Amino acid sequence: MSNHQRLDDGMRWRIVWRLEAGQSQVQICREFNLTPSVVCNLWKQFQNTGSIETKPGQGRPRATTATEDRYLSIIARRNRGATSSQLSRDLYAAT
After folding, report:
1. Cα separation of 87 and 69, whole Å?
2. pLDDT digits over 27-54, tens only?
3. Are 52 and 42 within 8 A, CB to CB?
4. What is the reported pTM?
5. Residue 74 and residue 28: Cα distance in Å, rounded?
6. Residue span of the signal peptide, if any (predicted)?
7. DSSP characters over 10-59
């Protein structure tokens, strides 16, 4: 497992302000205990978009809704030996 953690908006703005003030990326990395790629990517994003916000909706789109997930969970608990294809057929038949 990686030690991936999200930077909060306050820390992101502090990093950008220090970069705008002329502080080097290496100094900021040491001060905030970050890898250089994090600071570099944040700075590039700020220069391109003028924003520090992360883009919503990154990643693979969901295949099922929250309601379908609850239904699958209930069916899987009732029939412990069911395979994923059987659960898929049950979900398709129910909807």
Report:
1. 11
2. 999 998 999 999 999 999 999 988 888 7
3. yes
4. 0.56
5. 49
6. none
7. HHHHHHHHHHHTT--HHHHHHHHT--HHHHHHHHHHHHHHS--PPPTT-S
State whether residue 6 is helix, strand or coil.
coil
Domain residue ranges of the chain, discontinuous segments joined by +: 9-49, 64-94
The CA-atom distances, in angstroms, between 15 and each of 47, 63, 86 are 13, 37, 51
55-76 per-position pLDDT tens digit = 776 778 888 899 999 999 999 9
Sign of the alpha-carbon dihedral angle for 1, 3, 54, 69: positive
For residue 39, give both structure tokens. 């600071």
